[in-house]
Amino acid sequence: MKSAQVQILLSLVLAGCGPACGDEIKTIYVITDEQKLYAWEGNKLVHEFDVVTGRPGKETIPGTFTISRKYKDYTSKAYGSEMPFSMFFSDDGKAIHATQWATLRSYFHAYISGAVGSHGCVGLTAEDAETMFEWAPMNTRIVVLEEEPDE
């Protein structure tokens, strides 16, 4: 089992959401080193998507958050870019949202250069972002993790 999956399962257990966890609890995990998003309902993985996260100087900071605002159509006030299906999770404006070229940027970020990335948001393809937007209600927990270093 990958260390990120172990971290997710450990997080679920520590949150009181182990094998007996109810299906109603939804949690989104973003693993920055893997450039992956995992959506769990109780103890069941229901979605897994490639993402693009922050580049150096604009990192997607690890931590536990909740969705505080949702907008189907949104334009960044800071960058002027469209952010469809935005789900904001941090006080400084980080969100999960659709972005152009998400899959290609995710690959480059994970395997070629961490310099290719976002301004700290979690970018998905339009289809994947819409799926997450419809799946995750307000106050859904979001856990951003880095994968453990290889030993």
How would you explain this protein's 3D organization?
It is a single chain. By secondary structure, the protein is α+β, with helices and mostly antiparallel strands. The protein is built from three helices and nine strands. It has helices at 3-14, 102-112, 126-135, and strands spanning 26-31, 36-41, 44-50, 63-66, 69-71, 86-88, 95-98, 122-124, 141-145. The chain has a five-stranded mixed β-sheet. A four-stranded mixed β-sheet has the order 5-6-7-8, covered by helices on one side.
Overall mean pLDDT: 78
Radius of gyration: 15 Å
Enumerate the spans where pLDDT stays under 50 for 5 or more consecutive residues. Answer: 108-113
- For the termini, the CA-CA separation is 15 Å
Structural category is: alpha+beta
Could you tell me the CATH topology label.
L,D-transpeptidase catalytic domain-like
**Percentage beta strand:** 25-35%
The CATH architecture is Beta Barrel
Number of helices: 3
The geometry reads as globular
Number of domains: 1
CATH class: Mainly Beta
The largest sheet, given as strand count, sense and whether it forms a barrel, is: 5 strands, mixed
Number of strands: 9
Strand order of the largest sheet: 3-2-1-9-4
What is the helix content? 10-25%
Subunit organisation of the chains:
single chain
Give the H and E element order: HEEEEEEEHEHE
